[in-house]
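#lab-general

N.A. 3:47 PM
ok so I finally got the sequence cleaned up, no stray characters, all 184 residues accounted for. can someone with queue access submit it? mine expired

B.Y. 3:52 PM
send it over

N.A. 3:53 PM
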Amino acid sequence: MNRFHLRYCGSKAWAELVGTSLLPWALEGVDLGDELLEVGPGLGVTTRLLAPRVRTLTALEHDQRLAAGLQREFGGGVVTGDGAAMPFPGGRFSSVACFTMLHHMPAPELQDRLFAEAYRVLRPGGRLVGTDSRPSLRFRVIHLFDTMTLVDPATLPDRLRRAGFADVEVATTETRLRFRARKP
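B.Y. 4:20 PM
back already:
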């Protein structure tokens, strides 16, 4: 993430937006079960809100510096690694979540590998839930000189089904995208 983007994601304004709007919308009516894997927690804004909702939370962060900060706060439940090649056994988690991080992956093929990996590490009946941003001028400005691979809500359902998921739901607002799916 560029410096401005990192600063915004660590701001009180972002934390408030996530806590009062984004996360409640993303998780509305979703049972995360007992063992959640959060992919791409970044600075941990969502992690802090998710931890009280489940018995066990594991966070997988690609950026070593961000992972180190999360480890200081959350301890051994933070793993440094790649969402497109998860270092976990199959069928371990009751749910996998990724919030506003897919656009940080440099190619749609890597996003698809993340979906396949999420499917692999989920238990049967497990849920994938997540959000991402829709394009806007503000979003584009925040991502100047930064990775920004947009997720097309029109193609996302088929991408999730190709990964093996069922009961795929995609919803959008002007600025957000929400997706949910279940491993049969």
